[in-house]
Automatic annotation (TrEMBL), chain A:
Residues 880-944 are annotated as: Disordered. Residues 523-625 form the PTHB1 platform domain. It comes from Drosophila arizonae (Fruit fly). Residues 896-908 have a biased composition (Acidic residues). Residues 654-751 form the PTHB1 hairpin domain. This is Protein PTHB1. Residues 1-356 form the PTHB1 N-terminal domain. The gene is LOC108615626.
UniProtKB/TrEMBL annotation, chain B:
Coiled coil: none annotated. This is Tetratricopeptide repeat protein 8. The gene is LOC108609650. Gene3D superfamilies: Tetratricopeptide repeat domain. Residues 20-48 have a biased composition (Polar residues). InterPro entries: BBS8, TPR-like_helical_dom_sf, TPR_rpt. It comes from the Eukaryota. Residues 1-72 are annotated as: Disordered.
């Protein structure tokens, strides 16, 4: 940042270009070889090359280099002075070279050249002072104010000083205290004292007298004065400006400091650049008035700043890297030149001039804009943008995206037991169960170039995949990627789905994002193992396969457990996970022999989700494979019936109570978590307050009580924190149970005979997996949706709203979440769905039935609907079909008690009805019976309404 | 790379003031007229999208604008930790060798040879102010137990020996946001030894305590002691600027520029004040001077471009912006440049281009309240009232205090039944 250049007058590259030069590598001095002598420039590198230059003109010539020699050891410093007493000419100086373990004094001799290659210099070694400690730097001067000769003092790396006087006397000063860091030492002739920067960043002044005598008197080394500089220093120099005063100029790391020799600060100048090296000198003579103290400081960015005292008077810029050493010198032809040496050995003699510093802004090579061309480009870009953000035809877009990235994802139907639980980091409690795992394969084929591709594999809760994400950057076109995947249980949770979803999102080089999705199902054998079918169970569901393309055999659905041609009628499956010791969670699937119905029964809500998913999905899949009709191509319209029913239809029954029970448990745990969190927060506040008190207490006050309080508080905090962790773990488990329960309801509703719109809406509300947030629990987030369904949704038009008092009006109080209200709504929602579904089934059946029956039905539609609804809500149900001896493996254990005839439709019907426990049905037994009789053939028994326990006992006592 | 919060000895690398010249638009009567047509429906004299940029910069990007300086220089320790230390540790081969957090201060407090360097390492390199503070504390404890440090220094120097530690203590406490506690330490240090850093720290402390007059008095003393030191002059000028005494600030910047003609901060400040003073040509001269000093940054080019725009040298405007865009590396810089370019577009009457510029500004920095507000106005002008409303609401999220946004929202409420 300057306006002028440092002009180069003469420059040369020193022999050693590797670049081991520092501030001590440069010396400008005279040796007294001739009368009109000017300064020689001596350069010594740290690799031992010593060169002496004598510039003759304003360009480097070969004759300017007078000496070049290679020493065996590194050169640490170069000095010129009267180091030898036995030289007659008092103008003659000797060259001193500081080596790591010696100080060598040379006499410089000139060999005048006869030919045009000019004069040469020769070094003649006069003396060599060796020392044991490694040298750091050296300081010379007329110690003790002797005239005519100079003594010197070597600073060693451990901070000790060794003084050499010429008569061979040498002594060592070791400063007391800790080993100090090496720092430059300078000598001030006026006061005959040394200045040294101690490791504590104090500038200390020692008199030569003290130092030289202390060895004799054993007195300690006391500094005359000591001043804190407060920073490390780069270099230090002493200049005498007046008769009465010398100045110590110090270049610190951040400041430029000047003290007088009495230790009084003259100024501290804050530098706004990083300094590298400096040189201070006096213009004029100190014994005359008008002497000026000038300092040049070189900054890290190759600028030269010249100060008079502390006022900046000039700034200039070098065109080359910042020098590491700078000297003012008087070379031949250029008095007052600036001699600099860079770290790579570039030696320059320069001067200041008014040559302006030309800051050249690099030209921008921007092509001339052709407007037509640019317009075309812009148009093209805009078209591209429009195309990429045009979302009117999503199908085409998705098709395009799928073409761009081909995904094939499959999961093998077999399960494996050879999972490496250690490598996959399966928790010990899961690993010990040795659960089966599944293997999958994902193939990606990328057709076009992509900027970025991310792949996320989403598994249901509890299941983990060996690789969950994959991201690729700058994918070239045509690349393929194959990922073998392992799926395994990582937590002992109830799993609600076998579906593994894969999301591939990618961004094309133009920045257009696309997302693809694919899914595959894990084999059921990963979660269940077959077992003996159960005869009785708490919850029973019935599905009727209405599709012509799906054989209503168990083997169709459960290929993992049954042979393809197996005629098994019943299949018992036991959940492997979480595999509690106390309860075995068994689910039984029974296929009616002569009808298309399937019954699924279990005591446990959690077992259903995956089985129902399998049944419904398989049916829809097989049907759509076989028929031309594509389900998703049609848009749902008002009044259109659920198209799923054309393939599979569920009996209108939802086990509301168990589902709500799961929600209850989950909600309670949520409440506990909040309570616990609040308590933790309170404790934490206390903790902070106590800590603050401790901070603010003064030194003198006793701290014991406070410390005790803090410790007690801390223990409590940890304890409560552990509790919270425990509750959270419970909550996690309960959440997955709730997942299963909600999924169960969802799968039933999915196949209910309802308006399609209703099914879609309700299934959208009942989304799985359920999520909890810290601010909002699942129940709270669900409540508005459920509420909505009550008040506005298609379900509102249910005929029997009034009887249930659904609109309890008080909706204004939204702030506080009312769980009981939510629960009530949830229950009535299920109720209503079931009722709607039953009535529509009813109607459907009625249409086909005889007119008389229709009349009966129309007499009491509402009543009837109610009853049916409540009837189906019953829990303990008939057991009938269970041990269907279907599975050949199991048949031996199944005692083969029942004959095959039992599964005839008629037989099932004859088994009669189960009594309803519900109050609504209780009083209406008579009429109910009548109705039943009328409708029995059409629909009642299709639901496998089951005999009471008593009936079971009597009819099938053989089981017990 | 030095972090500005810790590094009070920071070296100015960029033309500091006026880096966000978008602030420049507000006081210019010509612009308001020019844009008055575009904003006909916005509330009366309020000029959306201009004045709010000043608070906006203060919030969203410290260090970029004049108004934000005090805030940016006194960052919190946590932010320091988050930025600098991480940056340093990347690629620092020695990082694995020590763990500063496990260092026990009391062990090192008595090892005089290294403890000062250790402090600087902790404070500047590790940026672990907390640790540095506890080291300070430990050292001061040791010194208190050995009064006078008689072993090393003669009694006369006893008071002087620990000015350094008092200063560092004050420095740490200031960085830790304990200005009151820092004050006593800094005062003690100053009484023992008048180090320039102590003056500057104290001045910042008083500014933090909202006593700029006090820091002015203090810095005035320092400047009297060392009239040649530009640092103090600049500090004085900054305080004046922070107190919105632009005239005094300008005088001091001029003085600084006279003392040190290559001082970029002074030059840039003078340029900004010329710019605000409806004198873009003079401003341009100063900026060109800075450019010829070798400063070569996106902000500078952006400023030059704006000066050219208002000085009538239209042919230079876009090339300068091109350069600025090419040199901009930070998203904030890009956002600023695109924001400024939107004014170029407005000046030429191309609202479509202006909109695009603002959208580009938002892609660089989505939380630019000024751009959101202006985009709202432009949308409303183009007839998209709902769009305008949503932009305004977004702007309100970012700058809840800005009067322009609020005024515009109010206006919308009054005139459009939304």
């Amino acid at each position: 940042m300057s306006l002028f250049n440092v002009c180069s007058w003469w420059s040369a590259q020193c022999g050693d270009t590797v670049g081991d030069y520092d501030v001590a590598s440069l010396l400008c001095a005279r040796f007294g070889l001739e009368a009109q002598e000017k300064d020689y420039i001596i350069v010594g590198s740290q690799s031992g090359t010593l060169s002496i230059y004598y510039p003759h003109g304003n360009a480097f010539e070969a004759t300017d280099l007078l000496l070049e020699t290679q020493l065996t050891t590194p050169i640490l410093g170069l000095y010129a002075g009267k180091f030898s007493g036995n030289v007659r000419n008092e103008n003659v100086n000797q060259l001193g070279v500081l080596l790591p373990n010696a100080f060598v004094i040379y006499n410089v001799q000139a060999l005048s050249g006869l030919a045009e290659y000019g004069t040469q210099l020769k070094l003649q070694q006069l003396a060599e002072h060796k020392f044991q400690r490694v040298a750091f730097s050296m300081c010379q001067g007329h110690f003790g104010q002797v005239k005519g000769r100079e003594f010197f003092c070597v600073v060693h790396l451990d901070g000790t000083l060794t003084f050499y006087e010429q008569d061979g006397i040498s002594y060592e000063c070791r400063f007391p205290g800790q080993r100090s860091l090496p720092a430059p030492v300078v000598y001030c002739e006026r006061t005959d004292s040394f200045f040294r920067l101690s490791a504590t960043w104090h500038l200390q002044c020692y008199s030569y007298q003290d130092l030289s005598h202390s060895l004799v008197t054993k007195s300690s080394y006391q500094p005359i004065w000591s001043q804190c500089i407060g920073e490390g220093i780069l270099d230090m120099r002493v200049v005498q400006l007046k008769e009465s005063c010398s100045y110590i100029m110090i270049l610190g790391e951040r400041n430029f400091i000047c003290l007088d020799d009495n230790g009084k600060f003259n100024f501290i100048l804050k530098l706004d650049y990083a300094p590298k090296c400096f040189y201070s000198f006096v213009v004029g003579y100190y014994w005359e008035p008008g002497a000026r103290l000038l300092t040049t400081i070189v900054s890290d960015s190759a600028q030269l700043h010249i100060y008079e005292e502390a006022n900046i008077i000039w700034a200039a810029q070098w065109q080359q890297p910042a020098p590491v050493a700078i000297q003012r010198s008087n070379v031949q032809g250029l008095a007052g030149s600036i001699v600099t040496l860079t770290a790579s050995g570039q030696l320059t003699v320069g001067y200041l001039g008014a040559q302006p510093y030309q800051f050249q802004v690099l030209p921008l090579n921007i092509e001339e804009l052709s407007f037509a061309e640019a317009h075309k480009q812009l148009q093209q870009l805009e078209d591209e943008i429009k195309e990429s953000v045009d979302i009117r035809d999503m199908d085409a877009l998705n098709q395009q995206a799928a073409d761009q990235v081909r995904i094939s994802f499959s999961i093998q139907r077999e399960v494996f037991d050879d999972l490496d639980t250690l490598v996959l980091d399966v928790p010990a409690d899961v690993a010990v169960k040795e659960l089966p795992s599944a293997k999958g394969l994902l193939k990606l084929k990328i057709k076009g170039e992509l900027a970025e591709l991310q792949l996320v594999i989403k598994t249901p809760n509890g299941v983990r995949c060996s690789q969950e994400t994959l991201s690729l950057v700058d994918v070239p076109a045509g690349s393929t990627k194959e990922l073998p995947l392992d799926f395994y249980m990582a937590e002992l949770l109830h799993v609600h789905s076998t579906r593994v979803e894969i999301f591939v999102s990618f961004v094309s080089p133009r920045g257009i994002p696309r997302v693809l999705q694919q899914s595959a199902c894990l084999p059921l054998s990963m979660f269940y193992r077959s077992c003996q079918p159960q005869k009785a169970a708490g919850i029973k569901l019935t599905y009727t396969i209405t599709s012509k393309h799906v054989p209503p055999k168990l083997a169709t659905f459960f290929g993992e457990f049954l042979e393809e041609d197996s005629e098994a009628q019943a299949l018992g499956l036991q959940l492997l996970c979480p595999g509690l010791d106390i309860v075995t969670e068994v689910i039984t699937v029974v296929a009616a022999k002569n009808s298309n119905r399937l019954r699924i029964q279990s005591d446990c809500v959690e077992t259903f989700a995956m089985i129902l998913e399998r049944i419904v999905d398989t049916t829809l899949q097989l049907d759509s494979d076989a028929s031309l009709l594509k389900m998703h191509k049609r848009k749902p319209k008002r009044g259109v019936l659920n198209r799923c029913v054309e393939r599979i239809m569920a009996a209108p029954f939802i086990p509301t109570q168990p589902i709500l029970h799961r929600a209850d448990v989950h909600h309670e745990t949520q409440q506990n978590i909040r309570k616990q969190t609040a308590q933790l927060e309170e404790l934490w506040q206390q903790f902070k307050t106590l800590q603050r008190q401790l901070q603010e207490q003064t030194e003198s006050e006793p701290k014991e009580t406070l410390t005790m309080q803090i410790e007690a508080n801390y223990d409590h905090l940890i304890l409560e924190g552990d509790k919270l962790v425990e509750i959270r773990r419970d909550e996690h488990r309960q959440r997955s149970d709730l997942n299963c329960a909600v999924a169960l309801a969802k799968w039933i509703i999915h196949a209910l005979n309802l308006e399609e719109r209703v099914v879609n809406v309700v299934n959208a509300v009942l989304s799985v997996p359920v999520e909890d947030w810290t601010e909002l629990s699942w129940e709270e987030s669900m409540a508005p949706g459920i509420d909505m369904l009550h008040h506005f949704g298609p379900l509102m038009r249910s005929k029997s709203t009034s009887t249930h008092g659904l609109l309890d009006g008080n909706t204004s109080n939204r702030d506080s979440f009312d769980y009981s209200r939510f629960r009530r709504h949830f229950a009535t929602l299920f109720d209503r769905i079931v009722r709607l579904a039953s009535s529509s089934t009813d109607e459907q059946a009625a249409k086909q039935a005889a007119a008389t029956e229709q009349a009966v039905e129309q007499l009491q539609p509402a009543h009837q609907v109610n009853e049916i609804g409540s009837m189906q809500r019953m829990l303990g149900e008939k057991k009938s079909t269970l041990p269907r001896a279907g599975n050949p493996n199991l048949s031996s254990s199944l005692e083969a008690v029942e004959d095959e005839e039992e599964y005839d439709e008629d037989d099932l019907r004859d088994m009669g009805y189960r009594k309803d426990y519900g109050p609504a049905a209780a009083g209406a037994d008579g009429s109910e019976g009548e109705q039943r009789k009328g409708k029995r053939s059409e629909w009642v028994n299709e639901d496998f309404e089951l005999p009471t326990t008593e009936e079971l006992f009597s009819d099938l006592g053989i089981w017990w | 790379p030095a972090n500005e919060e810790v590094e009070f000895e920071r070296i100015a690398t960029a033309a500091r003031p006026g880096t966000s010249i978008k602030t420049a638009f507000q006081p210019r009567p010509s612009t308001s007229q020019r844009r008055g047509t575009a904003l006909s429906h916005s509330s009366g004299s309020t000029r959306p999208g201009s004045a709010l940029t000043r608070p906006g910069t203060a919030i969203s990007r410290p260090g970029s604008s004049l108004g934000a300086r005090p805030a940016s220089r006194c960052g919190t320790a946590s932010r320091v930790r988050a930025t600098s230390a991480a940056a340093f540790n990347v690629g620092d081969a020695t990082a694995a060798l020590y763990q500063a957090s496990r260092l026990n201060p009391t062990i090192y407090a008595e090892r005089e040879a290294i403890v000062k360097a250790l402090f600087q390492f902790l404070y500047y390199h590790e940026a672990d102010v907390q640790k540095a503070h506890s080291l300070c504390q430990a050292v001061l404890d040791v010194q208190r137990q050995r009064p006078g440090q008689a072993a090393l220094a003669p009694p006369a120097d006893a008071a002087r020996t620990d000015w350094w530690w008092q200063q560092q203590m004050g420095r740490c406490l200031l960085a830790l946001h304990y200005p009151r506690r820092a004050e006593s330490h800094l005062q003690q240090s100053l009484a023992a030894f008048p180090h320039p850093d102590t003056y500057l720290l104290l001045s910042r402390l008083y500014q933090r305590l909202r006593q700029p007059e006090r820091s002015l008095v203090l810095i005035g003393q320092a400047a009297e002691r060392q009239p040649f030191d530009v640092t103090f002059r600049l500090e004085q000028a900054r305080i004046h600027a922070a107190m919105s005494q632009q005239e005094d600030a300008l005088q001091l910047y001029r003085l600084a520029a006279r003392l040190q003609p290559i001082n970029v901060e002074a030059l840039a400040s003078i340029a900004v004040s010329y710019f605000y003073d409806n004198n873009p040509e003079m401003s341009l001269m100063y900026y060109r001077r800075i450019l010829s000093l070798g400063v070569h940054t996106a902000e500078l080019y952006s400023n030059i471009a704006l000066c050219c725009l208002y000085g009538g040298q239209i042919d230079l405007v876009l090339p300068c912006f091109q350069r600025a865009l090419r040199m901009a590396t930070q998203p904030e810089q890009k956002a600023d440049i695109w924001y400024n370019l939107s004014f170029v577009a407005l000046t030429s009457g191309d609202f479509n281009l202006a909109k695009r510029c603002l959208q580009l500004c938002l892609t660089a920095d989505a939380r630019d309240g000024a751009a959101l507000n202006n985009l709202a106005v432009l949308s409303a002008h183009g007839g998209d009232v709902m769009g305008a409303k949503s932009y305004l609401n977004a702007a309100k999220d970012v700058l809840p205090e800005a009067s322009e946004v609020n005024a515009n929202l109010q206006y919308m409420e009054l005139n459009y039944k939304l």
